[in-house]
Design goal:
By secondary structure, this protein is of the alpha+beta class. The protein contains 6 helices and 3 strands; from the N terminus they run αααββαβαα. Helix content is about 50%, strand content about 15%. It folds into 2 domains: about 10-95, GMP Synthetase, Chain A, domain 3, CATH 3.30.300; about 110-144. Strand 1 and strand 2 (about 55-60) form a beta hairpin.
């Protein structure tokens, strides 16, 4: 039994063949968007739909949507310069699904910061503050 690639199955499937040009267009529009935006905005913005020159974008939150709205004229000009007709750009807020979690932040203190905190703690009288600063200063990097 020989195997076919995924595209061959999709092209043969009834009704799917008509969707392929639209899917390719959405991917192309998404790539242009990602290239035009800073990474922090690009990873939080999705191309939702494109029809008759109207591009619909989903932003992860209202702040991202506001920033994209400010960049809308430049983005439309960018698409035009690449020969892609985008006459209207709608930006809607579409929060990420609950299953997607934000990456956990891990702050790491430099050796200089640890020394400065240890020095500060040595100058303080015995207190909860001194204990807390001492604990932070002595935290091992591998604790994160």
């Amino acid at each position: 039994m020989h195997s076919k690639n995924l595209s061959a199955y999709l092209v043969q499937a009834e009704g799917i063949n008509a969707l392929m040009p639209q899917a390719k267009r959405l991917l192309e529009l998404r790539q242009v968007l990602c290239d035009a935006l800073p990474e922090s905005l690009g990873k939080n913005t999705t191309v939702a739909n494109y029809r008759q020159g109207r591009l619909v974008l989903y932003a992860a939150n209202a702040a991202i949507a506001a920033k994209i709205r400010l960049l809308r004229p430049a983005l439309i000009a960018r698409y035009a310069s690449l020969g892609l007709e985008v006459t209207v750009m709608d930006i809607e807020v579409q929060p990420a699904s609950a299953t997607e979690t934000a990456p956990q932040k891990a702050a790491v203190l430099s050796q200089n910061a640890r020394r400065a905190l240890a020095e500060l703690a040595s100058q303080l009288p015995e207190s909860e503050l001194k204990s807390a600063i001492t604990a932070v200063a002595s935290q091992d990097v591998s604790d994160h």
